[in-house]
Amino acid sequence: MKFKLFYIIVVLFLNYSFSQESYNLRKIDSLKQVVLNGKEQDSVASAEAHYVIAEYYRKATPLADSAFYYYHKAEKIFKKLNAHYQLALTLYGVAVIQKNEKDFIGSEVSSIEALGLLETMPSSDEVLNLRSFVYNNLGIVFKELEQYDESVKYHIKAIELKEKLKGDNKKTINISRINLGSTYKNAELFDLAINYYKQILSDKEFIKAEPRIYALVLDNYAHSLYLSKKESQLPGLYHKALKISDSVDFRGYNSIVINQHLAEFYNDKGHKDLAKYYAYMAKDISEKYHNDDLLKSLLLLSKIEDGVLAVEHLNSYIQLNDSLQKNERSIRNKFARIRFETNQIEQENIQISKERMWFLVISIVVIIASFLVYLVIAQRNRNKELQFIQEQQETNEEIYNLMLSQNEKIEEARTFEKTRISEELHDGVLGRLFGTRLSLDSLNMSSTEEAIKTRSQYISELKTIEEDIRKVSHELNTDFVSGSGFVDIIKTLVETQSTIYDLSYKIDHDDIINWDGVSNKKKIHIYRIIQESLHNIYKHANASHVKVSFELKNNVIWLQLTDDGAGFNVDKAKSGIGLKNMNSRIKEINGIIDITSQKDSGTTVTIQVPIT
User: Fold this and answer.
1) Cis peptide leading into residue 211 (ω within 30°)
2) Could you give the percent of the chain with pLDDT greater than 70?
3) Of 14, 227, 302, 367, which residue is the least packed, with the fewest Cβ within 10 Å?
4) Percent helix, strand, coil in the chain (nearest 5)?
5) The predicted structure's pLDDT at residue 562
6) What CATH number labels 1-121?
7) Sign of dihedral through CA atoms 219, 225, 229, 230?
8) Cα separations in angstroms, 134 against 45, 127, 143, 146, 488
9) Residue 41 contacts by C-beta under 8 Å, 6 or more apart in sequence?
């Protein structure tokens, strides 16, 4: 296969000691010449050269941004060439850099993308080996993200794949076991961590062949015992680990963590001098690297030291932490700028297009659903409005019928009075006229003094009868109930409601108002407004007296209802259904309503309704 040769070249190159800087610098310079060859910018050789340069910067130098730059170049070319295996290998290198620079989400994305490519390829040793490395990286990433279940899952997958591979894979398997043990330790599953460390320590040949790894495992094993409160072998195991580490690389990088663990242990036991000794040892070594280990050493010293020294170390810790965070952000920003120029943007644009399509679909669905909900609510409100109108119509008909009934009573009173006056004329006045006439007839032929006197009396009687006739005529000419029908209805309403609500009342009305010329619709609404006002007075005002008055001003009826109740805030009460109904009714008859009220000063409702 094409990628197998590339795999062999890469392994040979990377396995060659990077400490031989003169060789590697010459090699890198020659590879850069391949990169700069314009004719081969999109060739396999150019892509492989970019990849090897990136690997060199990742493993032999601290120049993570340079490594990322060359990985990015290789990635672009491998994508164009559809070289899936080489592309997956490049993405794995990118993922490792992102993990080292604490861009854990980015590392996860790159690792998943690499796995996606590898899962489409036949399961050769090269593919399985790379998959195991990607799983191992994901395990570390999820451990840093404190997603320990995911971390364990990927470390176990890495171990299972490595155990299937041909050849001696003991070292890489044990490295995965160390990572798995570290995950269990961070998850506070100390017994599981201890078991994995024991498995490695029981392999005598391995620990003899790999003293660096042996010291690392021994320290992690001792630290797991310390955290699980099983301290019988401590601090002996720590000292043994430190001795092995120093024998391989005196006061090298691996001894930093061991010194930190010793300082932590002695500080916990109250041995301040020993704790300070190992804490300062860890600090001195970690100052060569200026990284998280120095940060941890400063924090540890701030806890061990007292007074001013503790504050100084804490301030140094804060300053370094800020500096490291800024540096990490700077590197991640460089990664982002480099990524921005790749074909990944096209994939992101495709994803954005899909998201926009889904957003459009969801928006349309939401709009349609909102429209349907609006229709349902509008229809429901319309039904309520129609129901309200129907109820209002029924109430208006009831009031109208009441007015008709009142008019019928008035007409009955008219008829009764006319009958009474007719009987009075017939039985009283006419009888007296007839008697007087007969008496005068009998005296017409007599001229005696007595007759003259008697005639004079009868003439006087005729004058009295004349006055009675004039009085009856006046009563007949005056409509004693004219215009009083509606006022009587209002009086009945006010009297009834006041009795029910335990109110005293007074009604003043202007006799010049021609209620017969006012439409029934207006009279019904005026009636309902008075009724609603009386109800509100009873329900809210706690009043004892109410006054209702009618006046006619410029052909406009002024109705005023005043109570001596508690009053209220008119602005806040405008949303009440009672006031809404009153406003709705007054609008129906082209009137004006004004409500004035103050706390503890009563309320006045003034209504203006044009007669025509």
Assistant:
1) no
2) 74
3) 367
4) 75, 5, 20
5) 92
6) 1.25.40
7) negative
8) 24, 11, 14, 18, 98
9) 77
SS3 for 605? strand
Q: What count of other Cβ atoms lies within 10 Å of the Cβ of residue 149?
A: 9
- Distance (Å, rounded) from C-alpha 66 to C-alpha 70? 6
CA dihedral 362, 366, 372, 378 (to 10 degrees): -170
Which contacts qualify for 102-109: CB closer than 8 Å, 24 or more apart?
102/144, 102/328, 102/332, 103/328, 103/332, 103/335, 104/141, 104/144, 104/145, 106/332, 106/335, 107/137, 107/141, 108/138, 108/141, 108/142, 108/145
Nearest one of 585, 535, 523, 526 to 560, comparing CA atoms: 526
Helix 485-501 to helix 520-536 angle (10° resolution) is 20
- Rounded Cα gap, residues 218 and 237, in angstroms: 7
Kindly report the average pLDDT of the chain as a whole number.
Answer: 79
End-to-end CA distance of the chain: 103
Compute the half-sphere exposure of residue 603: CA atoms within 13 Å on the CB side of its CA: 21
Both tokens assigned to 340? 């921005």
Q: Read off the pLDDT of residues 296-336 as tens digits, 9 standing for 90 and up.
A: 888 888 899 888 888 888 888 788 777 767 666 666 555 55
Angular region, 325: left φ>0, alpha ψ -120 to 50, beta rest: alpha
If one counts every other C-beta atom within 10 angstroms of the C-beta of residue 70, the result is 24
Containing 563, the helix (H) or strand (E) segment is strand 556-563
Query: What DSSP character marks residue 39?
Result: G
Neighbour order of strands in the sheet with 592-597: 504-508, 545-553, 556-563, 603-610, 592-597
Bridge partners (DSSP) listed for residue 245: none
Instruction: Report which of 483, 488, 480, 485 is spatially closest to residue 421, judged by C-alpha positions.
Output: 480
Confidence tier at 169 by pLDDT (50, 70, 90)? confident
Residues in CB range of 351: below 8 A, 6 or more apart: none
Tokens of 13: 């190159």
User: Which among 566, 558, 575 has a CA at the least distance from the CA of 600?
Assistant: 566
Q: 58 near 96, Cβ under 8 Å? A: yes
Backbone angles phi, psi at 548, to 5 degrees: -120, 125
Q: Scanning the structure block, which residue is given the tokens 């007719």?
A: 422
Nearest residue to 178 (alpha-carbon basis) of 164, 158, 163, 161? 158
Handedness of CA 461, 467, 469, 471 (dihedral sign): negative
Fold held by 485-610: Heat Shock Protein 90 (3.30.565)
Q: Tell me the three-class secondary structure of 106-126, residue by residue.
A: HHHHHHHHHHHHHCCCCCCHH
- Residue 293: predicted pLDDT: 84
CA 341/CA 344 separation, integer angstroms = 8
> Is residue 202 packed enough to be buried (19+ CB in 10 Å), middle (13-18) or exposed (0-12)?
exposed
| Type and span of the H or E element at 595 | strand 592-597
Of 44, 51, 113, residue with least CA distance to 81? 44
- Residue 610 has φ and ψ, to the nearest 5°, of -65, 140
Count other Cβ atoms within 10 Å, centred on residue 521. Answer: 12
SS3 of 468, please?
helix
The pLDDT of 232-261, averaged and rounded, is: 89
**490 and 531 in contact (C-beta within 8 Å)?**
no
- In this structure, what token pair is assigned to residue 398? 């009831």
